[in-house]
Write a structure and sequence with these properties.
Blueprint (H helix, E strand, L loop, with lengths): L6 E2 L2 H8 L3 H11 L4 E2 L8 E4 H13 L35 H17 L15 E3 L7 E6 L5 E6 L8 E6 L5 E3 L6 E7 L5 E9 L2 E8 L6 E6 L7 E2 L5 E6 L8 E6 L5 E5 L11 E2 L5 E9 L2 E8 L11 E2 L6 E7 L5 E7 L4 E8 L7 E8 L1 E7 L4 E20 L2 E2 L4 E4 L5 E6 L5 E6 L6 E6 L6 E2 L8 E6 L5 E6 L6 E6 L6 E2 L7 E6 L5 E6 L6 E6 L6 E2 L7 E4 L5 E5 L4 E2 L1 E5 L6 E2 L4 E8 L3 E6 L8 E6 L5 E6 L4 E7 L5 E17 L4
Antiparallel strand pairs: 1-3, 2-3, 4-51, 5-6, 6-7, 7-8, 9-10, 10-11, 11-12, 13-14, 14-15, 15-16, 17-18, 18-19, 19-20, 21-22, 22-23, 23-24, 25-26, 26-27, 26-28, 26-51, 29-30, 30-31, 31-32, 33-34, 34-35, 35-36, 37-38, 38-39, 39-40, 41-42, 42-44, 43-46, 44-45, 46-47, 47-48, 48-49, 50-51
Length: 673
């Protein structure tokens, strides 16, 4: 059937197709979730609907026992087969007495959704879901992907010795696993083809470059499809098996975008200008291939799901539509059977994550299904077997102290200073060297904490209650701390007295502002903002006032030199060279090769920084002398570094963070629906 014949372009046409009056179908759309769409560019009364979705809605109502009423014509409406369901709301199983209550909630939810006033109202699932272990190997198992029948899972594992990720396959109910790839490069993100005969995966030989391969499940060498400039490789097959969706970008300075990649030729087509998260997240086609759900970077530490509609040639029909408003880390979308609903994960990095469910229309608030504990992500659903797989992650990031014999020379091995079973990082030493401000999730949410220089007397300074609060920076006199938080929805810059009290919000632009730092004289606060359309460094008076743009070629995290002459900064995650620009203005200059994100500290005589790891070789803390312009290795890091690097005012010690423990297992939830 052609697209034109399958589409009804007015209320009158929809009513005629359903054999009802216009008033009735408008009521169904308003109260019962009839899948009627509105043109994003047109007036509110300009609507359309797809016949297959209307058929499926009727069938779902009949299956769930919902009455659709008698036809208003003399003839009874003919029964129609259920078509592919891509975008109509959930029909909840509920007792008769709850109909009025649930309808009122649905209407209120729709109003809240359109107004976009904040995160969705939570609703818990009727029956608790029980998770059982699927893999319990040493190291980290991740990226689960079901075969079409749902009886096998392809996943990535770093092996018995945790030295390299490869793709493995395990049958549900069996103990034996099969190693699918053996290349010495990192191979992750498997995606099973809809026909079940091939597996696509990403291979990363160099930082920031991911190669897409496809291999037969029956054996044989993998075939390279394309190369992308992406730090990760979340892949999704189109239902016809001809295309893959993958993250990519034109250059290392550009944001990650969504691309369609031909499996046959490697041809690429950009699908959306929206920026993707830097952490690996896959997209998901609806069963018919008409829609694609995918995560979009909303701000530095948060993402939400968007929906993109295609024509039969996989050309976007309109701009992507936002589905979730979580202010957290949301992704891993999966279409449930029939294409009616999406299930996904959402939560805080290093904190509690939940499974959620939402309809792909604007007529249902997302509903929380269950809590499966801390850091559950990478959900994968197998409709044929009615089972869900997830990754359960265990990560412990702590703050370490390294004493220095002299500038650029370690006095001995580092020692762990601030530790918990949660995430502790991004430590900053106070100007007098007596206290430490740091980011921690030990309270259950990301907040700013303070401690004495020896790690004792740690206490929570802020109680923002936001998905992410972090980036603490001391004022030059040590009296104030600047930080960022998305407590109000988008990221903003705040200041709070180091002795405690209520934070004061400095920025209120509707875009994201964050990662603050102070000028050496305390008069200015530098911060990153995307208010110009790209991430740039800005500065504003520390007492509040109009901001001034500092960089033009990109910028994110910045620190002024101790003499106040230069501003040193990185341009974006996950790794970036360190650049400098004169405080009074002038051309920018590249100072170091790519360094770990937020992994540098500027002193009078040089820069301490952590180079980005290459080919799995352990990285190190290095010191670049301004005089010799030669880097010197200070200390080797045998564990992955975390955010933050800070040097004491006397130059005798520094702080950094590292991941002391990180592994993950896969879990299964049977009888999910």
């Amino acid at each position: 059937m052609s697209e034109e014949n399958d589409r009804l372009n007015s209320w009158k046409a929809i009513a005629a197709y359903l054999n009802r009056t216009v008033r009735t179908v408008q009521r169904w759309e308003r109260e019962e979730g009839l899948p009627v769409r509105r043109h994003g560019h047109a007036r509110a009364h300009s609507v359309f609907a797809y016949k297959a979705e209307l058929d499926a809605w009727l069938a779902s109502r009949q299956h769930a026992g919902g009455a659709v009423g008698a036809p208003e014509n003399a003839a009874a409406a003919e029964a129609t087969p259920a078509g592919v369901r891509d975008s109509f709301p959930l029909t909840w199983r509920r007792p008769v007495w709850a109909v009025g209550v649930m309808t009122a909630i649905a209407v209120l939810g729709a109003a809240l959704w359109f107004l976009q006033t904040g995160p969705a109202v939570e609703a818990t699932h009727d029956q608790p879901l029980e998770a059982v272990p699927f893999t319990t190997f040493p190291g980290s198992e991740s990226d689960p992907a079901f075969s079409p029948e749902g009886d096998c899972v392809a996943f990535a594992w770093d092996g018995e010795t945790q030295d390299n990720f490869d793709i493995y396959i395990k049958t549900v109910g069996a103990q034996r696993i099969v190693r699918f790839t053996t290349d010495p490069a990192v191979e992750r993100c498997p995606a099973w083809s809809p026909q079940g005969d091939r597996i696509a995966f990403g291979r990363t030989s160099h930082p920031g470059v991911a190669e897409i391969y496809v291999a037969s499940v029956n054996g044989g060498p993998p075939r390279k499809i394309a190369e992308t400039r992406a730090p990760g490789c979340g892949l999704a097959w189109s239902p016809d098996g001809r295309w893959l969706v993958a993250p990519d970008r034109e250059s290392d300075r550009d944001p990650l975008g969504l691309y369609l990649v031909s499996v046959a030729t490697g041809e690429k087509r950009r699908l959306s200008s929206l920026e993707l998260p830097h952490f690996t997240q896959a997209s998901a086609f609806s069963p018919s291939g008409r829609f694609l759900a995918f995560p979009v970077l909303i701000s530095g530490g948060s993402s939400d799901l968007f929906l993109l509609e295609f024509d039969n040639a996989f050309r976007p029909l309109a701009q992507p539509r936002r589905l979730t408003f979580t202010r957290g880390r949301t992704g891993n979308p999966n279409w449930l059977a029939g294409g009616t609903l999406l299930v996904y994960t959402s939560g805080q990095w290093g904190g509690v994550s939940y499974l959620w469910e939402t309809a792909t229309t604007q007529r249902m608030e997302p509903r929380k299904l269950t809590s499966l504990g801390d850091d559950i992500d990478q959900a994968a659903y197998a409709p044929a077997a009615n089972r869900l797989g997830c990754r359960r992650r265990y990560e412990d990031v702590n703050i370490w102290r390294l004493d220095l014999a002299r500038e650029g020379v370690a006095a001995g091995p580092a020692a762990r200073l601030l530790a918990s079973t949660r995430i502790d990082y991004n430590a900053q030493i106070s100007p007098d060297g007596k206290r430490i401000a740091f980011h921690s999730t030990r309270s259950g949410r990301a907040e700013i904490w303070l401690a004495d220089a020896d790690g004792s007397n740690a206490f929570q300074l802020t109680s923002m209650g936001a998905p992410v609060t972090g980036s603490p920076r001391w004022s030059p006199d040590g009296a104030m701390i600047a930080f960022d938080s998305n407590a109000a929805g988008n990221y903003d810059v705040y200041v709070v007295e180091a002795s405690g009290g209520s934070p004061r919000r400095l920025t209120d632009d509707p875009t994201d502002d964050g990662v603050p730092s102070w000028s050496r004289d305390g008069r200015w606060i530098y911060f990153v903002s995307n208010r110009s359309g790209a991430s740039q460094i800005w500065k504003m008076p520390s007492s509040g006032g109009a901001p001034v743009q500092v960089t033009r070629g990109g910028g994110y995290v910045a620190f002024e030199s101790p003499d106040g002459r230069f501003l040193y900064y990185q341009k974006g995650p996950p790794a970036s060279s360190i650049w400098k620009v004169p405080v009074e203005g002038g051309p920018e200059t590249e100072v170091t090769p790519p360094a770990v994100w937020m992994g540098f500290a500027v002193t009078l005589r040089g820069i301490y920084y952590i180079p980005a790891a290459v080919d799995g070789i352990p990285t190190a803390i290095q010191f670049l002398s301004f005089a010799s312009r030669q880097p010197r290795r200070v200390a080797v890091l045998h564990r992955p570094p975390g955010l933050g690097l800070s040097v004491s005012p006397d130059g005798r010690w520094l702080l950094y963070s590292q991941t002391d423990h990180c592994d993950s297992d896969l879990i299964l939830i049977e009888n999910f629906r």
